[in-house]
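FORM 12-B: Structure-to-Sequence Request
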């Protein structure tokens, strides 16, 4: 299965037999144990959800529990579902059968109620191949190791508890996080941190800090300690990565939601205020033994929001905080701290060899140069990785040339060390690298490739691979995204700002709010082709809003806050615009004007736009192929023109809780429709079919009486 699964467990059962009894109680026990479990909603009525949605949930799960009850085999839908589950078993899905008041041999040999049900299916269907497939699936599942509950033998609640505990420990064993490609010099440091965690009483709540300079390996050490601890009997686990970055992007309430979601296994947790989140965390976790990692904390508010004190958590809990700021830890009354030290020469040399040669043994002629390079990295793992990555495949002469460049840099000037590797890139690689740094934490790799393709007119996949090879970028397999160390990102910001100061009008792209203001004081803004504007939480504190005075010296800007004429100038040669968390109160008129400027646009996303109230007329976008508006919580209406985009292939409408109606869709080109978590939707008219893939989550609707024609209806009970 995928490295990052949507669900821990998919629960398959015969609704008429066990929905309100065994299966419902098992679902609750799993959720109470913090296991994210998929169970079709009890309000789903027969025939209203296409099988595609449920099959998608199976493929996105790590474990499937199949509750084989008395009448399981009488449902064609259950048998189809079982066949898919066993097919996914070959792709890594772990399947656990539960024989609930049925004999496993009856399932294996199709006797009793199972034999009767299959006999009826044989009479009903002319397709004997399908019936044979069901029989084979039943034999396969009956041969798997699982659980057997016999009527009158033992307490059912104890049986359910045992399943939940076993599944929990199975998930824990498989939950190791990726530490590092080359985890060198970590073992001794893990032992030191474990000593701090084990200090005092076993039942006490221990909160410790890990601190040190950027790039020293705090996060790597925290992941290694996490892996070392997860085998212990914790009630819940949570590794909150990139706290500083995620706070800036999403706010503290988001962090609180993620914390409880991971520990409790409840996906739908939202808070209206930080104080509400604090109260809920204290209430829900005060009796739970948890392992919590808070990675890269830089503000006291972050700690106050998610880990205000040891009394928030149950006995035996372990809380680990990483930060560059030791004083911040001390101010939060974290008395036990560990300072991460740079690698010693032996470990540093080993890491450099592995990074540059993928081997610990190297040609002796490189030894002298290798040792001289250690001086400039000063034991800093990030610097060693980047230096080693830049030397892959180079001759000894190339190595010596690189050493000469480092000789001109003062010791520990890490950003200057990183820039040497940037300067060694080809010009187009540099451009791609700077562009990726503008949006790498927002999009998946495939989306990054699509955006770069729009900018450059051809695929940049090879360049991305080269940047990963040189350790300037990393690929996070678990979260399916490109990542970059924040020091590397700091280097990119410095380069972009230096470029901007030299030639304001010829910059490769606008990035930060100050860049736009800086360029707006010049007259050549239209030469920028790639523009990414990030108005995150921290920026909003410094900029209260867009208005004409912010651009008072721009000659072509007039009455920006009324007529939005800024875009008329700004977009004239811009090929790609990413405006992150746009917060101007002039959005409606701005959006109407904006859409008219991009008649050749193929992809448009309004995801996470909290102030969007309506999707305007898009008839001026005849080439649009993909349209997405996810988590637009104030979106109420969608213009009818969306239903007549003749080239539209993908339409995603997710988490728009105030959306009331949806226009009819006359879209023969449409391949994917994803419509979910729109709880206020009251009107969804019929549409022309032609779908190749179709996702549709009916349980998100307020009512369920209509049918979707020309679609195969699955059998539900």
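FORM 12-B RESPONSE
SEQUENCE OUT:
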């Amino acid at each position: 299965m995928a490295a990052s699964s949507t669900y821990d467990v998919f629960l398959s059962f015969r609704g008429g037999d066990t929905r309100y009894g065994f299966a419902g109680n098992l679902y609750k026990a799993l959720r109470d144990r913090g296991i994210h479990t998929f169970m079709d909603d009890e309000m789903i009525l027969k025939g209203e959800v296409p099988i595609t949605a449920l099959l998608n949930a199976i493929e996105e799960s790590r474990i499937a529990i199949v509750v084989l009850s008395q009448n399981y085999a009488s449902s064609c839908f259950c048998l189809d579902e079982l066949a898919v589950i066993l097919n996914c078993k070959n792709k890594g899905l772990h399947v656990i059968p539960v024989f609930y008041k049925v004999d496993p041999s009856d399932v294996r040999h199709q006797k009793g109620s199972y034999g009767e049900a299959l006999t009826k299916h044989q009479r009903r269907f002319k397709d004997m191949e399908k019936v044979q497939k069901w029989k084979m699936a039943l034999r396969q599942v009956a041969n798997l190791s699982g659980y057997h509950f016999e009527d009158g033998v033992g307490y059912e609640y104890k049986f359910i508890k045992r399943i939940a505990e076993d599944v929990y420990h199975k998930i824990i064993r498989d939950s190791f996080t990726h530490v590092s490609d080359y985890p060198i010099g970590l073992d001794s440091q893990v032992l030191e941190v474990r000593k701090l965690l084990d200090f005092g009483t076993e039942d006490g709540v221990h909160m410790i800090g890990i601190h040190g300079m950027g790039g020293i390996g705090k996060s790597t050490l925290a992941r290694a300690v996490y892996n070392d601890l997860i085998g212990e009997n914790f009630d819940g686990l949570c590794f909150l990565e990139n706290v500083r970055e995620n706070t800036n992007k999403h706010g503290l309430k988001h962090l609180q939601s993620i914390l409880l979601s991971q520990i409790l296994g409840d996906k739908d947790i939202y808070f209206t205020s930080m104080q509400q989140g604090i109260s809920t965390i204290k209430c829900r976790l005060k009796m739970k033994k948890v392992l919590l990692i808070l990675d890269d904390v830089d503000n006291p508010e972050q700690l106050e929001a998610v880990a205000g004190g040891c009394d928030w958590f149950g006995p035996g809990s372990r809380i680990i905080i990483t930060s560059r700021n030791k004083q911040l830890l001390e101010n939060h009354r974290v008395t036990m701290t560990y300072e991460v030290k740079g690698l010693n020469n032996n470990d540093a040399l080993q890491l450099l060899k592995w990074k540059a040669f993928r081997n610990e043994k190297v040609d002796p002629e490189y030894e002298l140069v290798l040792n001289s390079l250690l001086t400039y990295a000063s034991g800093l793992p990030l610097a060693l990785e980047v230096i080693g990555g830049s030397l892959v495949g180079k001759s000894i002469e190339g190595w010596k040339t690189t050493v000469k460049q480092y000789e001109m840099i003062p010791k520990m000037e890490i950003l200057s060390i990183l820039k040497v590797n940037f300067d060694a890139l080809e010009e187009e690689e540099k451009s791609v690298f700077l562009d990726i740094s503008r949006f790498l934490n927002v999009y998946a790799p495939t989306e990054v490739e699509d955006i770069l393709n729009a900018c450059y007119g051809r695929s940049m996949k090879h360049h991305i691979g080269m940047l990963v090879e040189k350790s300037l970028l990393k690929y996070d397999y678990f979260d399916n995204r490109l990542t970059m160390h924040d020091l590397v990102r700091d280097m990119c910001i410095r380069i972009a700002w230096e470029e901007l100061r030299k030639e304001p009008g010829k910059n490769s792209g606008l990035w930060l709010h100050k860049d736009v203001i800086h360029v707006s004081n010049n007259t050549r803004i239209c030469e920028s082709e790639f523009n990414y504007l990030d108005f995150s939480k921290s920026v909003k504190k410094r900029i209260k809003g867009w208005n004409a005075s912010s651009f008072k010296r721009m000659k072509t800007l007039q009455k920006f806050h009324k007529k939005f004429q800024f875009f008329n100038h700004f977009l004239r040669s811009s090929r790609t615009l990413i405006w992150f968390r746009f917060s101007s109160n002039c959005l409606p008129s701005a959006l109407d004007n904006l859409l008219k400027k991009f008649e050749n646009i193929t992809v448009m996303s309004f995801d996470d736009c909290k102030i969007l109230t309506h999707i305007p007329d898009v008839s001026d976008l005849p080439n649009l192929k993909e349209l997405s508006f996810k988590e637009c919580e104030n979106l109420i209406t969608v213009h009818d023109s969306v239903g007549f985009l003749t080239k539209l292939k993908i339409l995603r409408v997710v988490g728009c809780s105030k959306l009331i109606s949806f226009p009819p869709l006359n879209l023969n080109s449409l391949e994917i429709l994803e419509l979910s978590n729109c709880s206020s939707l009251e009107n969804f008219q019929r549409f022309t079919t032609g779908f190749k893939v179709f996702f549709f989550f009916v349980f998100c609707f307020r009512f369920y009486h209509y049918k979707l024609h020309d679609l195969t209806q699955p059998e539900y009970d």
